[in-house]
Amino acid sequence: MTAARAPKKSESLEIRIPYPTKQAFMARCQADGRTASEALRDFIDQHLDAPARRRPVSRRAHWIAGAVIAAAMVGVAVPSLALPALSHNASFEKLDANHDGVLSRAEFERR
């Protein structure tokens, strides 16, 4: 029985790095006894196997998110605070028949 064959390495990846960095990388690979392709494939495999890292959120993003939330809360709160007071006063004035600012039991039951 034959073992499963490894997938053929037919794709290439081009990267741009400074010449001194390339020279140092090639020397390191030679010292380690492996090709640059092997080193890069190992790096890519390790990177893909590692859990995804969340990108840290900047302070500016926190401030923007806070401002958006605050604006949304104000936009919802202001109309809801103003309208009940108007409708409450209008309802109260209808019930307060003698307009003394106090709702008697008789005025309340009359509604």
UniProtKB/TrEMBL annotation:
Source species: Caulobacter ginsengisoli
Q: Which UniProt keywords apply?
A: Membrane, Transmembrane, Transmembrane helix
What's the protein name?
Answer: EF-hand domain-containing protein
- Per the UniProt record, which residue ranges are transmembrane? 63-86
Entries under InterPro entries matching the protein: EF_Hand_1_Ca_BS (IPR018247), EF_hand_dom (IPR002048)
Does this entry carry the keyword Zinc? no
Q: Does the keyword Transmembrane helix apply?
A: yes
PROSITE patterns from the UniProt entry: EF_HAND_1, EF_HAND_2
Give every EF-hand domain span. Answer: 92-111
Domain of life (superkingdom): Bacteria
Q: Which residues form a coiled coil?
A: none
